[in-house]
Amino acid sequence: MNDPNNLKNIDFIKMSALGNDFVIIDFRSYNYSLNQSIIKKICNRKNIGCDQLIIIKNSTQKNWVNTKNNKIENIECEIEIFNNDGSITEACGNATRCVAGLLFEENKFNHTINIKASTRILECKKISNQLISVNMGIVKFSNNFFFEDFNFYCADVGNPHAVSFINNSLDDKIFFRIGSTVENHNNFPNRTNVEFAQIIEDDLIEVRVWERGVGETMACGTGACAVVACAIKNKLINSNDVIVKFPGGKLQIQYLDHEAIMIGTYQKIFNGIIDEKLFL
Questions:
Q1: Do 130 and 36 sit in the same domain of this protein?
Q2: What's the pLDDT tens digit per position in 22-61?
Q3: Rounded to a whole number, what is the distance in angstroms from the first to the last CA of the chain?
């Protein structure tokens, strides 16, 4: 592995999904690694800036058995996901959709691919040129808890979420205080993402999200999955096909057989090169 302090110029792609923005670096042809200091420099909005930095790598696991059809299927690649504070996270639905979009552009005849993120294999399907579905897998639930006046439902979609259903939009001061405090609550040794959700209709939920290691973001794919799963589990809605509206846009979430399928768009913003001087 090359010394990360001696990296040459690195190509990257800046991408966005509903305003949730990423710097994506493809290391499939290289043996580079990035240390936390470099990751934080790249993510800092005084430099390039992003909510998360995504590394695309060759997967050490080449295939998996799809239990739905008992077929052995290929794994296209593996992704590593870093928050802008340099911490690693296990899952990011919006980033997975962006990476899937790049891979579909590489091979226009491909309509289904599998991406490994941490311990999960995520099946991605091309619906149209910009619309992609990602099966985020089984949603797992843990004990609910109260904090001040908020009841939080806890769910794991590869990463942890604490979801509170509210009747009215939150004042900024309350959102920032509660979001940051619950992120670091003792119930979550590895911190948690925090969602405040308003059920508008049986198939429409508005959400404001506080992401661990980032702060407020315009959208969160796994957060949308957690919100819908928690709403259905606790019989707050009847529909299993729900539009989740974030400040950055809308995601369609289907919750079937305890699995969350996320459907949404992605966007390329620009390509660039990280000057090696940034690593000094």
A1: yes
A2: 999 999 998 888 999 999 999 999 999 999 999 999 999 9
A3: 18
Is the domain of 86 the same as that of 195? no
Token pair 């590394």 is at which residue?
55
Between CA 152 and CA 130 the distance in angstroms is: 34
DSSP helix/strand/coil, 90? coil
220 in catalytic set: yes
92 is a catalytic site residue? yes
Tokens standing for residue 262: 């996320």
Q: Three-class SS of residue 251?
A: strand
> What is the C-alpha R_g of the chain?
18
184 and 202: one domain?
yes
Which of 50, 77, 92, 98 does the annotation list as catalytic? 92
- Among residues 42, 76, 38, 41, the alpha carbon closest in space to that of 56 is found at 76
**Helix (DSSP H) and strand (DSSP E) numbers for the chain:** 4, 20
Of 98, 220, 225, 230, the active-site residue reads 220
- Interval 109-127: pLDDT, tens: 999 999 999 999 999 999 9
pLDDT of residue 7: 58
Structural domain for 65, as ranges: 4-135+266-279
Regarding whether 172 and 118 lie in a shared domain, the answer is no
